[in-house]
Write a structure and sequence with these properties.
Helices cover 33% and strands 17% of the residues. By secondary structure, the protein is of the alpha/beta class. The protein has one domain (8-256): Aldolase class I (TIM Barrel, Alpha-Beta Barrel), CATH 3.20.20.70. It has an 8-stranded parallel beta sheet with strand order 1-8-7-6-5-4-3-2. A two-stranded antiparallel ribbon has the order 9-10. A hairpin with a 2-residue loop joins strand 9 (241-242) and strand 10. Helix 6 (189-196) packs parallel to helix 8. 47% of the residues are buried. It catalyses: D-ribulose 5-phosphate = D-xylulose 5-phosphate. Keywords: Carbohydrate metabolism, Cobalt, Isomerase, Manganese, Metal-binding, Zinc. The active site is at 39 (proton acceptor), 182 (proton donor).
Length: 260
């Protein structure tokens, strides 16, 4: 990471008690989250089906100033951009695979999203090699790259550490780009993700099941800041020394140890 970037902690509301979504989201805002991550699934691009623009609009009416990070896991992302912008999205990330892995289509959609006054990101599935993106991320077409560290569709999956090689490559090529990781992030795996170069952390199950989500957010943010100040380059090792502190093996508070 570079000094221009900062850690951004994003609880994923998919892991919340959806019967009281507004209250659960407010709990994360009160705990100090930077963004709320909203997973939008259509049952086609991924097997699961989640929420639509109406739910996001209702949530916005309760959370006037929260940053809504909308992740479109849908077969036709262009169709859904305007409805989610109107519903209150602050950023929309769509999948490379949903635009036929086509650079021209990806850039055109990013331009349309930006024209609506919000930020945009590009996501890649675990099975998609980073090299497939070609020159898509060059320039300033995108505000963020999302590297999936689980197969998209369901929460509560195990972290796929091999995906961090994509993060390392992206960070070496684009030092000023926000790089988000989503899937299996907790107090342990966040250290490896941050060491690889991720600065935007999506945490679902670990965050909503934590006895003290504020403490977990603070811990994740502190880990991220450590790597912002002392950027890691190259391979991620099992440990990373920072002023005598073994960052990758820092002790995990018991209230969220082992949660995935």
């Amino acid at each position: 990471m570079t000094s221009e970037l900062k850690p951004i902690i994003c609880p994923s509301v998919l892991a919340s008690d959806l019967s009281c979504l507004a209250a659960e989201s407010q709990r994360m805002v009160d705990a100090g989250c930077d963004w709320l991550h909203l997973d939008i699934m259509d049952g086609h691009f991924v097997p699961n089906l989640t929420i639509g623009p109406g739910v996001v609009k209702g949530l916005r009416s309760h959370l006037k100033s929260a940053f809504f990070d909308v992740h479109l896991m849908v077969a036709d992302p262009e169709k859904w951009v305007k409805p989610f912008v109107d519903a209150g999205a602050d950023s929309i990330t769509f999948h490379w695979e949903s635009v036929d892995c086509d650079e021209k289509k990806a850039r055109e959609l990013a331009t349309k999203i930006r024209a609506l006054g919000i930020k945009t990101g590009l996501a890649i599935k675990p099975g998609t090699p980073f090299a497939d993106l070609g020159t898509t991320l060059e320039g300033d077409a995108f505000d963020m790259l999302l590297v999936m560290t689980v197969e998209p569709g369901f929460g509560g999956q195990s972290f796929m550490e091999k995906m961090l090689s994509k993060v390392e490559t992206a960070r070496s090529l684009f030092p000023g780009l926000n790089i988000q990781v989503d899937g299996g992030l907790d107090g342990e795996t966040v250290k490896k993700a941050a060491a690889a170069g991720a600065n935007v952390i999506v945490a679902g199950t670990s965050m909503f099941k934590a006895e003290n989500p504020e403490a977990l957010m603070t811990f994740m943010r502190d880990v991220g800041l450590s790597f912002c100040r002392f950027p890691s380059r190259g391979k991620v090792h099992s440990s990373f020394s920072l002023g005598g502190i073994d960052v990758v093996r820092l002790a995990i508070p018991v209230q969220y140890r082992g949660l995935h």
